[in-house]
């Protein structure tokens, strides 16, 4: 075609891509709805689990990748900064930040797992006390409590076997107490040993132990609530340089260009990054020291 209103090849390619994408979306959504409607009307399997269609699979896959690989989000942010600043330095920094962020996420996940296990030990003590007061034998009470709470983790098989076949239950509990988060099982092992050797009441000892563990958890939660303000201050101080860059860009300056394309800017960027890292580590160490026992 000729003339001023002719459509060029790039525009035709854009239109064709849009039409193909729309057709694919319509087929994916409409086909799934038609399949579900036919299944309900003719098969009557409303209560059966429906197979995942394409978009559901993509959504679940993306959600799983986001939960398991959140550290890789550093790369899109680095690419955006590299495009805005017209430099490869943000990409290099983002690649170096991936293992550091992964290590921090793993440490946080481990801390949460330890807290979950500590709460499970408290629930285990309460469950054993309830089973003992209901008239069950100590071994049977421990078996029921272990299955109900799942507090042992990898040591559950050894403790259950010792309780079922009359083995060294206190020894198995003591070995399980060496795992992170299960330190409270050392008190359970001590109560079990005293009850077996000295004939003392196991329910009374575990009841007092449960109260002590609950008091310790309340103290830890109160301390964490008091230190929440300090952690907020650390986060605000860490974001101040980013806020400064945004204000500079809003005022019409080019902070990324100065930092990434001039010797003085590169020196300032290096020194500022080192000071920022040192400040965050120092502040985090102070706050973590306050969280300690």
Topology, please?
Layout: H1 9-43, H2 54-68, H3 74-85, H4 89-133, H5 138-149, H6 156-165, H7 169-176, H8 185-198, H9 202-226, H10 228-250, H11 255-261, H12 263-291
Report the uncertain regions: 1-17, 23-49
Distance between the termini: 81 Å
How can the largest sheet be summarized? Answer: none
The helix-and-strand class reads: mainly alpha
SS element count, helices:
12
Number of DSSP strand runs: 0
Mean pLDDT across the residues is 76
What is the chain-wise order of helices and strands? HHHHHHHHHHHH
Looking at the chains present, what oligomeric state does this protein adopt?
single chain
Shape: elongated
Strand content: under 5%
Rg, Å, rounded: 30 Å
The amount of helix comes to over 70%
Q: Notable features of this structure?
A:
293 residues, elongated, disordered N terminus
Describe this structure in words.
The chain is mainly α. Helices cover 80% and strands 0% of the residues. It has helices at residues 9-43, 54-68, 74-85, 89-133, 138-149, 156-165, 169-176, 185-198, 202-226, 228-250, 255-261, 263-291. Helix 4 (89-133) packs antiparallel against helix 5. The model is unreliable at 1-17 and 23-49 (pLDDT under 50).
């Amino acid at each position: 075609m000729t003339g001023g209103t002719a459509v060029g090849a790039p525009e035709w390619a854009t239109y064709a891509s849009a039409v193909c994408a729309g057709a694919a979306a319509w087929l994916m959504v409409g086909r799934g709805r038609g399949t579900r409607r036919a299944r309900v009307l003719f098969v009557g399997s409303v209560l059966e689990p429906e197979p995942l269609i394409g978009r559901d699979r993509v959504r679940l896959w993306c959600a799983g990748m986001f939960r398991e690989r959140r550290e890789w989000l550093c790369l899109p942010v680095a690419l955006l900064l590299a495009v805005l600043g017209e430099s490869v330095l943000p990409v290099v920094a983002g690649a170096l930040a991936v293992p550091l962020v992964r290590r921090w996420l793993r440490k946080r996940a481990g801390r949460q797992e330890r807290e979950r296990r500590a709460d499970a030990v408290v629930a285990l003590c309460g469950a054993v006390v309830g089973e003992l007061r209901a008239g069950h034998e100590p071994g049977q009470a421990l078996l029921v409590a272990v299955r109900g709470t799942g507090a042992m983790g990898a040591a559950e098989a050894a403790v259950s076997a010792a309780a079922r076949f009359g083995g060294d239950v206190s020894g198995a509990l003591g070995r399980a107490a060496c795992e992170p988060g299960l330190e409270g099982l050392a008190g359970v092992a001590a109560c079990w040993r005293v009850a077996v050797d000295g004939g003392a009441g196991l329910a009374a000892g575990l009841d007092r132990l449960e109260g002590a563990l609950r008091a310790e958890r309340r103290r830890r939660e109160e301390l964490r609530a008091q230190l929440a303000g300090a952690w907020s201050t650390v986060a605000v101080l860490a974001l101040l340089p980013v806020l400064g860059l945004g204000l500079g860009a809003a005022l019409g300056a080019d902070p990324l260009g100065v930092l990434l394309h001039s010797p003085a800017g590169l020196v300032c960027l290096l020194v500022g990054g080192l000071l920022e890292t040192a400040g965050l580590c120092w502040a985090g160490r102070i706050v973590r020291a306050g969280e300690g026992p």
